[in-house]
Amino acid sequence: MKEFTVNGMVGQRLEKDGVALTIADIKAKPGTQFVLSQRTELEAINALQETFTVSERSKESGMLELTMTGDDPQLITRILNSIANNYLQQNIARQAAQDSQSLEFLQRQLPEVRSELDQAEEKLNVYRQQRDSVDLNLEAKAVLEQIVNVDNQLNELTFREAEISQLYKKDHPTYRALLEKRQTLEQERKRLNKRVSAMPSTQQEVLRLSRDVEAGRAVYLQLLNRQQELSISKSSAIGNVRIIDPAVTQPQPVKPKKALNVVLGFILGLFISVGAVLARAMLRRGVEAPEQLEEHGISVYATIPMSEWLDKRTRLRKKNLFSNQQRHRTKNIPFLAVDNPADSAVEAVRCATNQSAFRYDGDGE
């Protein structure tokens, strides 16, 4: 890598050999040296992902919690606040773009809806003129009013679903509530249509044409209101995201947890020690019973037990060998047959000697 030296001032942009650098502020003593390192975008993203996590505070609450770990509390705070602010700005920009697209769509649809409304009104007027100004009775007017009300609610749900589908999935409670309400309204519309089918044909036709006019007028008014709302929202986009609390650091380090590490170290050491003892015992297993030799065809004439007295004396002597007083002494070495002739091990040796001599004499005869 090519090295070069350049002088500059704080707050001024430096450019040399394809490198651009701006130091906004610096707090250090004269002569302090800093090492700058360059990372690729992917390296920076991977490094951030190792310490940065996003989790939902509670299920389906819509509240996100950002956490980050590191050794510089001030840097962590700046990074988290920067991430939250960038997300907020992106949300506002996306909301403004969506409002702009929706507004353009409404501006294209309004002339078509107005034209359909005019055609529906003309058809109703023509039919009434042909039937000598046929009007609806009280029952038909009540049914028409209910049908128009249901249609208006369904149209509002259609607009609402277009917005919700951009924020939630269909299994979200808000989305499920909208779908359930739509299903209820559709069932109500079917019930009203059955009542219309039972009316005279003339009343049915007038009601159908009147329904088209009222529904078209309601849709047109809804589109006009929506156009005004989007115009206002576009000019003052605030997004649908809020930063509830700024980033704060814990007063005490969250890692490492010394008490937990001590406990885990103790448990791990205990397991390792037990495992080492068991492994050593398995690797150093010898003959534990005379039957093991007899299974391999080896005759056993006698068994000599281990002397507990000699074992204690031997361990005591080994311990004393490390002291300054007994380090170079070689006397007082315990001899079992002399020091403790009544020991069970000595008796077993005598019995084994007598049996061996008896078998030898018997074989000689």
TrEMBL record:
- Regions that span the bilayer: 259-279
Asked if Membrane is a keyword of the record, the answer is yes
Which Pfam families does the UniProt record give?
GNVR (PF13807)
Tell me the protein's name: Cryptic autophosphorylating protein tyrosine kinase Etk
The residue range of the signal peptide is none
Keywords annotated in UniProt: Coiled coil, Kinase, Membrane, Transferase, Transmembrane, Transmembrane helix
Entry membrane topology: Multi-pass membrane protein
Taxonomically, the superkingdom here is Bacteria
Q: What organism, scientifically named, is this protein from?
A: Escherichia coli
Which segments does the entry list as coiled coil? 103-137
Enzyme Commission identifier(s): 2.7.10.-, 2.7.10.2
Annotated GO molecular function terms are: non-membrane spanning protein tyrosine kinase activity
Q: A Gene Ontology CC term for this entry?
A: plasma membrane
Question: Encoded by which gene?
Answer: yccC_3
The Tyrosine-protein kinase G-rich domain covers 202-282
What are the top taxonomic ranks of the organism? Bacteria, Pseudomonadati, Pseudomonadota, Gammaproteobacteria, Enterobacterales
